[in-house]
Each structure stands twice: as C-alpha cells, then as structure tokens.
Design brief:
binds adenosine-5'-diphosphate; 709 residues; seven-stranded parallel beta sheet; alpha/beta; 39% helix; binds magnesium ion; 4 domains; OB fold (Dihydrolipoamide Acetyltransferase, E2P); globular; 23 helices; 21 strands; six-stranded parallel beta sheet
Length: 709
C-alpha cells in the first residue's frame, strides 16, 4: 500500500544502499556489517556519505556569555561532583570557568565519567545550556579532558545505525575519504570550472571551516554543494541516456500496419464494435503507439492519463495491432479485481472477433485452480491465446509464450523492477517484447525528465465527452447523518454508491471488523430495500468477484470496501463516493478513489469525511491534501500539489519501488543544474565514453542497474 511508504526516515538518509546485498555474515565484523547497512563499502561510498549536520567544537566560550538554549563548549574546573539518589539516581557535577559556574547532570553514567569529573579536574564540556532557576545547567553534555588542541573545522555528525557509534563512523569516513580516488571525471572543456573541484568540495562538506554561513550548508546552496549536486545529476542523466542507447540496440518484433484502414483487420473491427468514437487524444496516442510498434526497437512508452480518460481502449487497440501482425499480447494489472475488469471488458469487445480467427483471450492469475491454469497456459504456449490478461502470474516462469510481442502494464507504479525484468525474460529468441506502461498518476514534467529520461511519454489530456464534473465536499465526521441523506437521494434516482473505509495499518483484521460494522450500520440506516455489499482484500477471490459482479449488475446498490477498489474499477452507474477518514489517505490515492465515480453522464459527487486527530485538528499535510481535493479534479494539478506537499523523494518513493532516488540534488529547486546536466550528458557520452562510465559508477555504483530495469 502506498500509505505505508509514509514512514520514511529523513529524505537525505533514506536512500537505498549503493551496494547490492551481500550474503549476510560472510566473515564481516560488526562494524563492517553496520557500515554495509548504510551502503558504505567502496572508498567512494564513504567520501560521498555527507554529514546531516555539524557540531562546532572549534571554540571555547565563556559561561557568562552563554544564553539559554545555546550549544556551547566551555572549559573549567570541577568544583563539586556527587551521585544523588532522589528523585532518581543521577550524577551531578559543577564546573567553574572563572566567569560563572554550570551544573552538569547525567541520569545514566559510567564509573569512568564519574572519575573524569573528579573535583579539581580541568574538563572541556559541550552541551546545550539551560538557564534554570538554580542557575546554568547542561544535561548529558560530552566531557573531555581540557587542554587538547581545538579542531580547525566543524565536526560532522552522520546519520548512523545501531552498533555504529558516531566516533567510529567518523573515523571510517575520514579514512575512506582519504583513500578515495577523486580525480575529475567531468572533462574541463565541457564541464564545470572554478575553484570547487570534487575533492575540495567533499573535503569541505565533511569538515567545513567554522566561518561558513551555516544556512548555505543547510539549504545546499553552498558552491561545494552545488558541485556535488551537479555531479550527481549528471551521473543520473548519463545512466538514463545509456539505458536508452542500450535499448535502441535491442530488437523487437516489427508490427507493421497498413496506413490504409483494412476493414478485415482486428483493429478496424474493434473500432467498429466500440459503442463510442475515440477522443482526439485517444486517436493521437494510438498513432504514437502504432508508430513505435512498427519499429524494430522495443517500445518503452508510458501512457499517462487521468482516471477515466479511457486508457483501456487505447490498450485494446494496441493489442489489436499486435494480433493483426500475428503476435501475442499480454495485459497485466496489479490486482486481481482490476485484471478481472479488464478481462470482462476486453473479452466483451474482442472475444467474438478473435473466435472468427480461431483465437481467444486467456486469463491467468495466482489464485486460479491448477486445471484451469494448465488449460490457459497451454493456450498461451500454442499461440491460440492471442491476448493474455491477468496479474503478474502472466509473467511467472512457468508461462511460455509462443510469440509475445507486446506487454501492457496497467498502473505501472505498482509493478516492481523484478517483475519488469521477468517480462524481459519472455523475449522470443533475441526479440524483446514492446512495453506499454499505463498510469493514472501523472508525473510532473521535471520528474519525468529526470527519472524517466529513457521513457517516451504519451498523454491522454482529454476526457471522453459527456462527463459532468465531480463535486467534492469535505464533511466533518460528526455530520454523518447528512451523508446518509445524500446516499438516499442518489439511491432514489437509481444510482449506486461507494463507501470506502479507512486504512488502519496495524491489522487487516481490524480493518475488516470496521468495514463489517460500517456495512451493518449502513444497512440499518438505509432499510431492507437497499442491498449493501462488502468488499475486502481478505475475501477469497471468487467471493470478491461475485460481489463486484453484483455491484456491476446493480444487485448491490451500496458497496462498502477497503481500498481494494482503489484502481481502475469501472461502474458508470455509481455516482457517489464516500471516503471515511479521508485525512489518512495519500493525495493520489484519494484522487484515484474519486475517479471511480463520474464515469457516466450522471452528476457525481465525492464526500471526504474527515475526523480531527487527538490534537483536535487535522494535521497540516492532511489539510493540504483535502484542500487540493476540494479545489481541483485535474489529475495533473493533483500530481503537482502532491509533489509540493511531499517532495520528490517520497512522491517517487511511493510510485517506483526500487528506483534510486537522488541523494543530494532536489529536483524541485535544482532546475538549473538539471538543465545543465541534460545538456552535457549526450556530449560527454559521445566524446568521452570512458569518463562517462567512470562517472556513473562513481556516483551510482550498482544503483545504475536499477535504472536500466
Ligand atoms: P482509465 O483511463 O481510468 O483506465 P477507462 O479506460 O476505464 O479509463 O475508461 C473510463 C470509461 O470511459 C469507460 O467506461 C470507458 O468505456 C469509457 N470511454 C473510454 N473512451 C471513451 C470515449 N472515447 N467516449 C466515451 N466513453 C469512453
Ligand atoms: Mg484504468
């Protein structure tokens, strides 16, 4: 579930390790193992492991000059030191630096600390000064012997893990940085000029001089930071460009089509049986895809279009092109329900037409009975199944295609890298299948440029005609009664209603109980004439499908569900969507859910029920999400707002399992650097291929492998 991706650590430390997992244990010390967890293996990894903040140990200040809340380093003589037991056991010492005194308190302490603070000892103490009513105080300061030389640079503080104390990590980074080969990989004649070369930038960022304007380190605007970010962005652009070139060297089956419409083609016949004409956008995108399919370079295209923009038809027409050329097509969806919807729709359109040709549509999922799966697999292997629809079971190892030429992935962000690789394994001989990915959550342009540079993008920017806009209302939870009245009004007009229950992350059992209770309550309020159904991810597939079928047939009028209906479900008669605890959902998820209504001609509405948390208020980010939902139903605008609320790291994290995120650059602010990198990458790859490769390896290491998947 995308929602669980919320529990991320601070963005700059949450990057996937740069190193592939190594067999656990394998003779490593505890420290090495901890370092590995942080992705620190190669010298360069250490060099690029930048601090999250700094401590200033370069100066000694006078106690008298410190104010409440200051981080301060002072030196003085211990005048008192004792262990007290009330109100709890603690070590209390007092130091005097000649200007004033300060009390030091430790709740957990070692005998060695007690010794260090013996009365009369001169100590150097660093901590946060609190000006309580008993005078100055520091809680748990660090204590060293006084008199050692002061460092000249700020002290780095790195993000670390259990088993790796800060001083050990500091030492490891220092020696890694010293050993790292940091010669320039960006050729001078095309690259960056100026004082901040790579080594001096990294050295400075690990050990800045105390006169630095701290804000420029924190917001990464310092020239040293600019240098690092530019290098990283260049590496990313290079590796994507390289992936694109590699793909261009691969071969896919050519699926030519006649520019003159052939009435006997499946494509033409499908167009004829569709109950509607294509929108201009569908036509244009269809041509873009046909153009790709006619080439012998594998297509790698993302079809993005808002919920309800009609991606399924585009997919069906692409499948028809593929079948017309005598090849097989696979269509995969992330959930069984969604796959079943596609299946229902495409079978309705295509099966009669395929039957005339002695072909059929096959259905493959993990939950299928063995006998049925065997029959389906046999049809796939013989080529009788020209179109194969299902979940990722379609690309499981056991399934063998006769001649797969086109794979279509719906809701591509739910498919992981491993699955996309498995798909490539379905190549026929040396021919890779063309790949069409579909997504209802558009990627803002800057992100598309950076993360999907090796992807061609087609956009359905037009909704089918006759849709009435969805009205979105925010309603506080205590006004539920009004919502019931709304439901009754819709039912009175013969319409149907979705009621989505909130995610409760601890347990699916609790989710189920809540959903069941809601169903019972609604059944009570709405009376016996109304059928209220329940859909939950734990239900057996057959039961889920039966409920969906009953809802599609309007035998069930109100469907209570957990978020299993999130993507793709299409019941045009449903005109009201109620989302309970809407504040708990992510923005794109809310938008997806809302897209389940407004699919027919009836005026539709979406009610977002929200409940303030324990603090009595809805949190700031949640409020921004609800506001965005109320203000716009344009998926592209929603995506822009989502990006603004979450930042690119999380925004992509929830979408792209396995995709490496930028560690240093920030796409929403580093627009100029990105433009620079985009311009330079092709030149560098052409004129200095070895340097380009070394640059990629240095910055992305094995991460580059992810990008190619
Ligand atoms: P999505 O892009 O969200 O996958 P669908 O493909 O499910 O959208 O299409 C949404 C609805 O619009 C479906 O009921 C579909 O049959 C219908 N539809 C698609 N294209 C057109 C069109 N050109 N004219 C009218 N209705 C269309
Ligand atoms: Mg869809």
């Amino acid at each position: 579930m995308p929602a669980s991706a919320k529990s991320v650590r601070p963005q700059k430390t949450a990057n996937p390790p740069t190193v592939a997992p190594v067999a656990p244990g394998a003779g490593l010390s505890l420290v090495q193992r901890a370092l590995r967890k942080l992705g620190l293996v190669r010298d360069i990894d250490f060099a690029l492991y930048l601090p999250m903040r700094y401590e200033d140990e370069t100066r000694i200040v006078r106690l008298a000059d410190t104010r409440d809340g200051d981080m301060a380093q002072v030196e003085g003589v211990v005048t008192e030191c004792e262990v007290v037991f009330r109100p709890r056991r603690q070590l209390i010492a007092t130091i005097d630096d000649g200007s004033d005194t300060c009390q030091l308190r430790f709740f957990n302490f070692y005998p060695s600390q007690q010794k260090q603070l013996a009365v009369g000892a001169r100590v150097r103490v660093r901590g946060e000064v609190r000006g309580g009513f008993v005078g100055r105080q520091m809680m748990h300061p660090t204590v060293k012997a006084a008199g050692t030389a002061l460092p000249e640079a700020l002290t780095p503080v790195y993000s670390t893990v259990a088993g790796l104390p800060q001083p050990v990590l500091r030492r490891e980074v220092r020696s890694g940085l010293a050993r790292a080969v940091l010669d320039e990989t960006i050729p001078v004649q095309i690259g960056l000029r100026g004082a901040w070369d790579l080594r001096s930038s990294l050295t400075f960022l690990h050990y800045p001089t105390p006169d630095v304007a701290m804000a420029t380190l924190e917001d990464h605007s310092h020239p040293a930071w600019q240098r690092i970010k530019a290098e990283e962005l260049l590496a990313q652009q290079l590796s994507q460009l390289q992936a694109r070139l590699e793909r261009a060297a691969q071969r896919a089956p050519k699926l030519p089509f006649s520019p003159k419409p052939q009435p006997s083609s499946l494509h033409a016949q499908l167009l004829a049986v569709l109950p509607f004409g294509l929108t201009g956008a569908q036509q244009r995108v269809g041509e873009e895809i046909s153009g790709d399919l006619a080439r012998e370079i594998p297509m790698h295209r993302l079809l993005q279009g808002d919920v309800g923009s009609g991606k399924t038809v585009v997919a069906a027409l692409a499948a028809a092109r593929c079948i017309d050329a005598g090849f097989q097509c696979a269509l995969m969806a992330p959930t069984e329900i969604l796959a079943a919807q596609h299946f229902g729709k495409l079978v309705g359109w295509l099966d009669p037409l395929l039957a005339e040709r002695g072909l059929r549509v096959a259905w493959l999922t993990g939950s299928q009975k063995k006998k049925e799966r065997d029959t389906m697999s046999a049809a796939v292997e013989s080529g009788e199944a020209a179109l194969v629809i299902g979940t990722h079971a379609v690309i499981s190892e056991k399934v063998r295609f006769k001649n797969l030429a086109l794979a279509i992935i719906d809701e591509q962000h739910r498919f992981g890298v491993a699955q996309r690789l498995a798909l490539r394994g379905k190549a026929v001989g040396h021919l890779e299948p063309h790949l069409l990915m579909m997504s209802a959550t558009p990627i803002p342009r800057t992100l598309a440029m950076s993360y999907y540079a090796d992807l061609d993008v087609s956009t359905l920017d037009e909704l089918p005609p006759g849709r009435t806009p969805i009205v979105t209302k925010l309603v506080a939870d205590h006004r539920r009664d009004e919502v019931i009245a709304r439901i009754q009004a819709q039912l009175g007009q013969g319409r149907q209603v979705y009621w989505v229950c909130p995610l409760i992350e601890e347990s699916e059992a609790v989710d189920l109980r809540n959903a069941t209770e809601t169903r019972d309550e609604l059944a009570d309020s709405l009376g016996p004439a109304v059928n209220v159904g329940l859909l939950h991810s734990r239900m057996p597939t057959a039961e889920k499908q039966a409920v969906m079928a009953a809802f599609t047939a309007n035998e069930i009028q109100v469907l209570v569900s957990t978020t299993v209906i999130e993507v793709g479900v299409d019941v045009p008669n449903a005109s009201l969507m109620v989302i309970e605890h809407a504040e708990r959902f992510g923005l794109s998820q809310l938008h997806q859910l809302r897209g389940r209504v407004g699919r027919g001609a009836a005026a539709s509405a979406c009610v977002l029920l929200y409940a303030p948390g324990d603090s009595g208020r809805v949190g700031e980010a949640a409020r921004a999400r609800l506001k965005a939902m109320a203000e716009t139903s344009d998926g592209f605008e929603i995506a822009r707002r989502d990006l603004a609320i979450r930042g690119p790291g999380e925004f992509l994290g929830a979408r792209q399992s396995g995709a490496p995120l930028l560690r240093f650059a920030d796409l929403s602010t580093d627009v100029m650097l990105l433009a620079w990198a985009r311009e330079l990458a092709p030149v560098m790859l052409e004129k200095h291929p070895e340097l380009a490769q070394r640059h990629i390896d240095r910055w992305l290491g094995t991460k580059a492998e992810y990008l190619k998947a």
